[in-house]
Amino acid sequence: MKIGYRRVSSFDQNLDRQDLGPLDKTFEEKLSGATAKDRPELQNMIEFAREGDEVICWSIDRMARDLRDLQTIIQTLLDKNVSITFISENLTFSASSNDPFAKLQLHLMGAFAEFERSIIRKRQAEGIAKAKARGAYKGRKPSIDQDKIIELKQQGMGPTKIATEMGISRVSVYRALKGSQEQQEVSQ
């Protein structure tokens, strides 16, 4: 089975440039690639993949922005005898192949993806610090209505149903509920 994984960093970005060709199943996310554990569709894809399947991803930085995460993801798939192809880098990894050059290339590209993520975060922090100094930084406007999440939870809806109802991820629902609970504990 050919399984696709596509990811962009934010909800307003488009997945169209990541053309993976014909696939049997596709997993897609509009979330930061900072950590693998915070991406439910990545975890679903890893769990879904079976022996003999091929995972296809546009590029290494779409799979992971952290070298350790990248290595863990790939090793997990290889342990399941699932091959992984990165189209942009023209790299394929499988349990049966042991290409040292491909491994080196993977580590270099993964390190560059992690480095790029670090530079982006540094620039962002510098920009925010300058904006705060000018009094212009107010923070990002909330894009999720936490009160609505709490209301739906009080009506007996589960996190998955709330996420579907509101068109957001379950991670966002859990985060909002946790934030609400922490806020209540502080005010008591």
Automatic annotation (TrEMBL):
The keyword Repeat does not apply. Belongs to the site-specific recombinase resolvase family. The active site is at 9 (o-(5'-phospho-dna)-serine intermediate). SUPFAM superfamilies: Homeodomain-like, Resolvase-like. One of its GO terms (molecular function) is DNA strand exchange activity. One of its GO terms (biological process) is DNA integration. Pfam families: HTH_7 (PF02796), Resolvase (PF00239). Gene3D superfamilies: Homeodomain-like (1.10.10.60), Resolvase, N-terminal catalytic domain (3.40.50.1390). Residues 1-135 form the Resolvase/invertase-type recombinase catalytic domain. Keywords: DNA integration, DNA recombination, DNA-binding. PANTHER family: DNA-INVERTASE FROM LAMBDOID PROPHAGE, RESOLVASE HOMOLOG YNEB. This is Transposase.
